[in-house]
Design brief:
Helix 10 (331-342) runs antiparallel to helix 11. The chain contains 16 helices and 40 strands. It is α/β, with parallel strands linked by helices. Strand 11 (399-405) and strand 12 form a beta hairpin. The strands form 11 sheets. The protein has a 7-stranded mixed β-sheet, with helices on both faces.
């Protein structure tokens, strides 16, 4: 029996193959099922042409949406070379136009958006462990927060894994007015280029990951960009995809349209054909100069591999004789080629090409292989039914030797010759190990550092996703040669009235959940904290506890629970904070059958990326401080999504959600204030026509608080009854000094006295998209500034209007309030309380 370590490594190697196999088979299936799509034979022929190409390019930038999708499409679909995008971050520090997911949840969304984009443009996808901590104006600050050497190690690891001939950065390594992350991504790429081939650099990676030196690193100067200098190359990246009969530009637009959380859903227009010329410029940063092409001086054929010249000739012969209407006619030649391919030295590029080749062989044999599970969610120790089916649609005899479940360390032999055009089914009942970990993105399994995720298993670093909990490997034999088809099984489920395919997730026997992200306490005063316990699939009995830091008291120490299948129950614990202001992380634990779980549940479901399940630690941010409020009832108008309304409830307000039909004099009656959610004017077309009613509400004595909007893409700019213009300016240093311009203003004094201490402990930034011009009715009580920049006064603008006030604020309440920042609560409470008794 293999050692557990070698088994895990072997599983991972097969997993990456499985992902690309699934994509390839979906392409073939799509071609067979849609008359307007390319035939299966045409798809296979294109994959054969790609198989003979050995060049590779790694594109490097900072975030999801930074990549040049036109370049990736041209390289992967036009030149048929290996093309990959390395996004230094997962975009977890940005905003989200789709909903209220921020931080790790947004990072998971954008990870899958990038994978969806790559499925369209044909590239591969990599990441580092760096966390997107929001806009940075300084690459030095960026590299310090990220831990430069750690992220550099990740970039080197990706280079040594993917082994590109050419690296192309999206940005310049020279500091400029662009995002500091952008510049830092190029700095890291350039430094990694210099050391990735050095065996003395990061020697801990050498176990199975040998040094690799690309030929050159270039900066993509952009569309139509000229520019001279040594190594400058002009490249026409226009053209038309031969399979889809769509221009590279159209495909690239469809790819870019996958970045919907960033508002790029309007991309993707374009028709078939008409691949216009498009020139991109590339400037040499280091390495050997190029004159005519980015691959100048690089052997991009099989002759680069020792013994590969014969492979190249055989591939050309197969392509020359290939009959798209009869792919099976090439099987004999493919099997000869496969024997030669197997005899080559086992180097990374050859291993990848072998996997690609087996996909081609499977398609030519007409093998349709499927594996499904009977449910999408299982718990450790549960049994799962795996149904597999194989259909041989080609004329070449094939034997099905059996199925392996490497994650379960199990193999089922079932040698049978496959009949022609008949479905052969097999069903296995397997039991998951009791110690099987619950499903969770590998970079979110441990508490992250300040600017970098902690990953215990280094072999996972760089990969977009970790291995699935269950992998099915089907072994076949044809003319004495065995090959494996790996499948990640899916379950057919009904969600929101639609039947969808979901991959298997391992879930705990119970989910734990607090009804809110943050709980506010008064120092020394006991408060009841509710928690919900939900069945993960079966009836379950266990014990629930809450852990809290020293100085915080929890009673009772534990409670027993018994939950029926599919049910949930609520329990309460009394939590008493210290007598002084304090911040705590309170975690819920459930012990079932001797094993302790602390998982909550977050379901993310968007059509373009499907259902994502996140199972984070069930954690409550508890913050204890003194807070005074005036007024009692606040209306909340939803924007793009945030949890500010929930935080208002923690302040002590009664919060009334306001729909469009509520935005009338009658609907607003009885409210002390109305708060409009973040980016509401970017995402809501209906809001502008209701603003007169909201202005009248303020005129009659209410407070209208409008949170930040982006200046571009506004559906309406009627934020206030007075002129106000937005800019792209922001204050990114969360520790930056604050100037009290109007220290006597009620917003800084009533009912809470605001001091410099109230701006301690802020997270990520101060504010974004500050107004840069406003009517004289507005007063700015505060000014904020980043180092070496002039102060910005548009963080809070207050205009008296009749008996009430209209307030526009670009401070990032949507980050500070859920983070439990006391000063943010105190200041926001003052805004709501203006003029109230």
């Amino acid at each position: 029996m293999q050692s557990s370590f070698s088994t895990i490594v072997d599983i991972r190697a097969r997993l990456w193959c499985a992902a690309w196999t699934a994509v390839a088979l979906l392409l073939v299936a799509s071609a067979q099922s849609k008359a307007e799509s390319p035939s299966a034979g045409a798809v296979i022929l294109e994959k054969l042409r790609a198989f003979q190409e050995m060049g590779s390019v790694l594109h490097v930038a900072a975030h999801p949406d930074d990549e040049n999708t036109q370049l990736i499409t041209y390289l992967a679909r036009g030149r048929r070379v290996r093309a990959a995008y390395l996004s230094i971050t997962r975009g977890d520090g940005g905003q989200n136009v789709l909903g209220g997911e921020f931080g790790p949840q947004l990072g998971l969304i954008r990870t899958h958006e990038l994978l969806a984009a790559r499925r369209l443009d044909g590239g591969k996808q990599f990441f580092t462990r760096a966390i997107d901590f929001g806009f940075s104006k300084d690459p030095e600050e960026t590299l310090k927060i990220w831990d430069e050497q750690a992220v550099l190690s990740d970039v080197v690891r990706v280079i040594r894994t993917f082994r590109p001939d050419v690296i192309v950065t999206r940005f310049s390594p020279q500091a400029s007015r662009t995002h500091g992350h952008h510049t830092a991504s190029a700095i890291l790429a350039l430094e990694a280029f210099k050391v990735s081939g050095d065996p003395h650099a990061f020697p801990d990676q050498h176990k199975g990951l040998e040094p690799w030196q690309p030929k050159r690193i270039l900066m993509n100067r952009g569309f139509g960009g000229g520019g001279g200098g040594e190594g400058a190359v002009q490249l026409d990246v226009g053209g038309t995809d031969v399979l889809l009969d769509e221009s590279f530009s159209t495909i690239a637009s469809h790819s870019r349209a996958m970045h919907k959380s960033q508002g790029f859903g309007n991309f993707g227009s374009g028709g078939r054909g008409g691949g216009r010329s498009r020139t991109e410029s590339f400037q040499l940063l280091a390495g050997e100069p190029a004159k005519k092409d980015i691959f100048d001086g690089i052997d991009v054929q099989w002759t680069r591999v020792r013994g590969g010249a014969e492979i190249g000739k055989l591939v050309r012969d197969v392509i020359a004789k290939f009959k798209p209407g009869d792919p099976g006619a090439s099987v004999s030649d493919l099997l000869v080629l496969r024997r030669k391919l197997t005899a080559l030295a086992d180097e990374p590029l050859v291993r990848e090409k072998r996997r690609d080749f087996d996909q081609i062989l499977q398609a030519c044999l007409g093998l349709d292989v499927k594996s499904t599970v009977n449910k999408a969610e299982v718990s450790p120790g549960d049994s799962v039914t795996i149904e597999s089916s194989v259909t041989r649609n080609g004329n070449i005899p094939v034997s099905w030797l059996g199925v392996r479940y490497p994650t379960l360390n199990k193999e089922v032999k079932r040698t049978s010759k496959l009949p022609l055009n008949q479905v052969v089914n097999a069903t296995d009942q397997e039991v998951l190990p009791n110690d099987m970990p619950v499903s969770q993105p590998y970079w979110l399994r441990d508490v992250p550092g300040v600017g970098i995720y902690r990953v215990v298993e280094p072999n996972l670093i760089g990969q977009p996703l970790g291995p699935p909990p269950l992998l099915v490997e089907h072994e076949f034999e044809v003319e004495g040669q065995a090959f494996v088809v790996p499948i990640v099984p899916t379950a057919r489920v009904v969600e929101n009235g639609k039947r969808i395919d979901r991959s298997l997730d391992v879930v705990p026997p119970v989910f734990l959940g607090f009804p809110f992200e943050v709980a506010r306490f008064s120092p020394g005063q006991k408060r009841s904290v509710p928690i919900t316990v939900s069945s993960g699939g079966h009836s379950v009995t266990g014990e629930i506890t809450l852990s809290a830091p020293a100085g915080w008291k929890v009673a009772p120490r534990s409670q027993m629970f018994q939950i029926a299948t599919g049910a949930q129950s609520k329990y309460s614990f009394d939590v008493t904070p210290p007598a002084h202001p304090a911040l705590a992380s309170i975690i819920a634990h459930a012990t079932v059958n001797g094993r302790t779980y602390d998982n909550g549940r977050v379901d993310i479901n968007y059509a373009h990326i499907g259902h994502l399940l996140l199972q984070p630690t069930a954690r409550l941010t508890a913050v204890s401080f003194d807070l005074n409020i005036r007024g009692r009832t606040v209306g909340y108008v939803e924007g793009a999504g945030d949890s500010v309304a929930e935080c208002l409830t923690q302040m002590g307000y009664t919060v009334k959600p306001l729909s469009a039909t509520d935005l009338t004099k009658e609907g607003l009656h009885g409210l002390d204030a109305v708060v409009i959610g973040v980016r509401a004017f970017n995402v809501r077309k209906d809001l502008g026509k209701h603003m007169p009613a909201l202005f009248a509400f303020a005129e009659s004595g209410g407070n209208l608080i409008v949170q930040y909007n982006r200046p571009e893409g506004l559906k309406s700019d009627r934020f206030a009854p007075y002129d106000l213009g937005l800019s792209g300016q922001r204050v990114t240093d969360e520790h930056s000094p604050v100037t009290f311009l109007l220290p006597d203003h009620p917003a800084l004094n009533t009912p809470n006295k605001i001091t410099q201490a109230d701006f301690d402990g802020w997270v990520q930034e101060r504010g974004i998209y500050f107004p840069n011009e406003w009517d004289q009715h507005f007063k700015a009580p505060l000014a904020f500034k980043d180092p070496n920049e002039p102060p910005l006064e548009g963080g809070i603008l207050i205009a008296p209007h009749g008996r009430g006030n209209v307030i526009y604020t670009s401070l990032v309440w949507f980050r500070e309030l859920p983070a439990g920042v006391p000063g943010a609560y105190r200041l926001f409470a003052n805004l709501v309380s203006l003029g109230k008794s």
